[in-house]
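queue> holo job accepted (D-xylulose)
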Amino acid sequence: MTVLIGDKEYFPTVSEIKYEGRDSDNPFAFKWYDADRIVAGKTMKEWLRFSGCYWHTFCGQGHDPFGPGPQRFEWNNPKDARGRAAAKMDAAFEFFTKMQLPYYCFHDTDLIDEEDSTVSEFEEKIQFITDIAQKKQDESGIKLLWGTSNLFSNPRYMNGAGTNPHFPTLARAGAQLKVAMDATMKLNGENYVFWGGREGYITLLNTKMEREQENFARWLHMAKDYMRGQGWNGTFFIEPKPMEPTKHQYDFDTATVAGFLQKYDLSTDDFKVNIEVNHATLASHTFQHELQVAADNNMLGSVDANRGDYQNSWDTDQFPNNINETTEAMLVFLEAGGLQGGGVNFDAKTRRESTDMEDIFIGHIGGMDTFARSLIIADDILTKSKYTEMRNTRYETFETGQGKDFVEGKLSIEQLAEIGKAVGEPEQISGKQELFENIVNQYI
Ligand code: XUL
Ligand code: CO
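queue> job finished
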């Protein structure tokens, strides 16, 4: 079937991607993602809530610090910003539809070129393109997972947006933030993201860290009060990243964000995290570590799916393809009961050298299959293997007797010391890591 929403087809060689199973040799078919297949009581579609991102897929052309991008897109041909934006949106919705992606995400500046617009001019442009987006969403049934504001690319934000040391610049950023929040609400966006690429500092010599963090907390409170006041009941996601572009980013990792929210009286009922795989690894964590910290703090909101590169240490945003890693993550995901409000958004880009238009389909098929397959494997491990039992056994001494008294806070340090003396040299108990790892492999 050919899906054509606008009047031009941008990807004529690719039709709707369907599930054909693991024996299919068709590169344009899912081998694992079978949207309506039930896993652990819900369909794959319901668990994963896949989303396509505007910035890597329709804006980025493969540029890197050493040169412009070689990828060529027909939707960039129109001469004026509105024409380009409308063409890009036709292409984007054709892609989302053919890919079976139920959601999409954007930064305000992805939708339409900002050029040197004033805030009011930019707001008008956003009105223009979100009118079209509204129509596209209605026609296709595709929904907005989250919107966000790009408050890091424009040179005016070089010293930050909500943490900028200069109040007029912070206020200018606030004006743009409001435009993006309004656009998100207009399009029934289910969530709103804050990623603070420039919210941090390079040197403490010129920085009052506490002032910047207090201002940032105020900024988040204002954003929340505004959207709640408009009757919006979605979730705000903070997307942690330790560095890049800024050396010390305030939202370093999930644990840091949890402490920040608590310190500044921001509730985890309003604010959760959007965990990006490659941001976790830049913070020297695993993806599953970040998911677990989030789940334990009522903050597991959403996921930006991608992967990094083992041999370098920057944000390469590659499509996920490592079954072992994703399976370990899906164990945490399933045990946590999935995501709270969010989905699995592909914040991933094809390589600079992948210049065929069809390559963006191939990248997303691989990413969706990786998550779908890992979901099945994780469910098998949880329901068929001794994994859960083995892990519970490690902690069983806290379930009864004095261990239980300890957990319930009934022991003083004197009583604990008495017990410790009576124990003598405790029995040595293996952590069994290799056996746990072998069980994961067994079910892959
Ligand atoms: C940057 C990044 C952003 C956020 C949205 O590393 O992940 O694209 O996802 O601003
Ligand atoms: Co991201």
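queue> The mean pLDDT is 97.
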